[in-house]
Automatic annotation (TrEMBL), chain A:
InterPro entries given in the database record: AAA+_ATPase, ABC_transporter-like_ATP-bd, ABC_transporter-like_CS, ACT-like_dom_sf, MetN_ABC, MetN_ABC_transporter-like, NIL_domain, P-loop_NTPase
PANTHER family tied to this protein: AMINO ACID IMPORT ATP-BINDING PROTEIN (PTHR43166), METHIONINE IMPORT ATP-BINDING PROTEIN METN (PTHR43166:SF30)
CDD domains linked to this entry: ABC_MetN_methionine_transporter
ABC transporter domain location: 8-247
The protein, known as: ATP-binding cassette domain-containing protein
Key word Translocase present: yes
GO MF assignments: ATP binding
Segments crossing the lipid bilayer: none
Pfam families noted in UniProt: ABC_tran (PF00005), NIL (PF09383)
Automatic annotation (TrEMBL), chain B:
Protein name: ABC transporter permease
Domain annotation ABC transmembrane type-1: ranges: 23-217
Family: Belongs to the binding-protein-dependent transport system permease family.
Residue intervals passing through the bilayer: 27-50, 62-85, 91-114, 143-168, 198-221
Family matches, as InterPro entries: AA_ABC_Transporter_Permease, MetI-like, MetI-like_sf
Membrane topology: Multi-pass membrane protein
Organism lineage string: Bacteria, Bacillati, Actinomycetota, Actinomycetes, Micrococcales
Amino acid sequence: MSEREPKIVFESATKVFRTPKGEVRAVDGVDLTIGAGEVYGVIGYSGAGKSTLVRLINALEPVTSGRVLVDGRDVHSLKESELRRARADIGMIFQQFNLLSSRTVAGNVAYPLKVAGWPRARRDARVAELLDFVGLTDKARAYPSQLSGGQKQRVGIARALATNPTILLADESTSALDPETTQDVLDIVKRVNVELGVTVVVITHEMEVVKYVCDRVAVMEGGRVVEHGDVYDVFARPQHAATRRFVGTALRDRPSPAALARLRRRHPGRIVTVGVREDGGASGELTRALRDHPVDGTVIYGGITEIAERPYGSLTLELAGEDAAIAAFLADLGRTTTVLDLGTAAHPLTDPDAVGPRAPKGASA
Amino acid sequence: MNLVAAARPTDWDRMLPALWESLGETLYMVGVSLLVALVAGLALGLALYVTRAGNLYGNRAVNIVLNVVVNIVRPIPFIIFLTAIGPLTLAVVGTTIGTDAVIVPMSIMASFAFSRLVEQNLVAVDPGVVEAARAMGASRFRVVWSVLVPEALGPLILGYTFLFIGVVDMSAMAGMIGGGGLGDFAIRFGYQRFNWEITFVAVVVIVALVQIAQGLGNLLARKVLRR
């Protein structure tokens, strides 16, 4: 990835909420740089602090300590009036859309323009332009309650872009939508980035979303960024358990404990899971290793998909052969890819990062 | 012969002007009180809402003080409140009897009542909408008048209509301090003279008044809630 101009910089950003039950460190010493013009994903499970993190960018939440720079300016040191102007440069869309139910679609899109003091004529022209961009020209006079979820989010996007911001914050913007509508909305987000050059920060708990739109990603857990970088690098070589769980959940390429227990009944032999990546361990490598060693391999589970347009996934095989031959085969394969040994039905080993239904009690897994 | 039949037929030539005058007094008392409550009650209700912890002007101390004041005034029965705030009434309108004197306690009580209705309806506004407006750079004051009030307008109109009925109810006690009105008319000419006809007519007029107000309120609220 080419070096980009830093657009948003977190410097030891920390946000502590005081609750009756004690302090909660929602964001805990985050250092992160988001480049101008990129689509940056922040993924984490609920409660990981990602929604708070994104609210530090437009100072909807004040930081407890640390700094958050937008275009080199610390937004948390701005006066209220300066902050309001800064916010006009940062659009935001929400999971629940947060449209004004008392205003029409056009009225919602016009609202930030009114706030920014645009004259009526320019406002009307801009609203028409924005509704055209999101394909809702015919809904200008409709009220939000008359729209579908996808249409509401498109109004949200038009509204967020009204004042020509250079940053768009998308807070779980597709989590309330069905898969097809999610795709439509993400396509618009992509267009916002590519056609308008807007820097986009996408907050989500769905890896599909990150896979589809993001250039880079940060994985959050317990208020900290546990891993960040190029989307492919992070997901193809997950270092942290949280990342591995996201990958596993999205791909469903590795058997869940329950599925593994079922597999063992039909395949009592040695079971291994082999990673498939573009830079080695691709299925060709597996085929070669099987040819070179006196070992039979039967694919019994697996999945291969694309992350950032590059192949990624894993295959689970049952191996048959002499113990020594299997050991040599695994050592050979292990030089080019990750190999996870799941043992045999008699001596089972577990996958520490397995996701999905647990094995029924008493079953070996 | 029973008592009703024994009573002389009602002299409507004399009673009708008295009825209209009473209606006028009621409309005057109710009208002024409602106007005051619209402004003061809305302001107080907004204050109760925005000073809640975590809201636009979150301020625990102010919020507690406001709540205590409202909670002290609200439970006082109106007939007692009417006389109890005599000194204040005297200071404001220069007398403690008559229609104008009734308006002071009525306005105060109506404002406090409306403030709670306003607060309740604002609580129901999605906080996400407030956050969205803040994210767009709207000032806190702007959010109050351009988001909070419009978003809650339908329920606010219904609450105000509900308040109208409560204020009409209060106005019936105006007779206590010589304030006149339909309630006083019903008691003096109807109840105290065993003239059920007069009482009945006064009740019909009050019911008609309330019906018209409720109908209007519903109509307006429906227009606002068409979305």
